[in-house]
F-ATPase delta subunit
Amino acid sequence: MALAFRGVIRNVARRLQVRNYADAPKGDEMALTFAAGNKVFYDKQVVKQIDVPSFSGAFGILPKHVPTLAVLRPGVVTILENDGKQNKIFVSSGTITVNDDSSVQVLAEEAHPLESIDRSAAQEALSKAQSEFNSASNEKAKAEAAIALEVAEEIVKAASA
């Protein structure tokens, strides 16, 4: 009897744990706040979709997305605005918060629109970061150089896209 009861409880628990993915039903809105130390890009502006790079993987956000908190990795955040325009912004790091009211906050350490990135300057920064990584003399310097190198690699990749 107890074994059968456990089986019923497990089945009920599994049904409760099923994750539902967000759809974008018409009429639903998603307000985006996107700020960095150097600029505020969006201030509660309604958008259709946001694609973000995170350390747990890149993902897209639509209205009614499951509430989420994630750490941004260096890469490009893509915002699809309501008029169909795509805005691509490079972020060095930061956080993304998706709330149950369909509001989204992107807080970046540093962020720049892709069109403002100078490819040759990015390549130069990558060369410098590689040199600093190779010449790092202790673990702390090596770790700091590795972070700078990762960001520089992603900037070059973004500038080349």
The chain has three helices and nine strands.
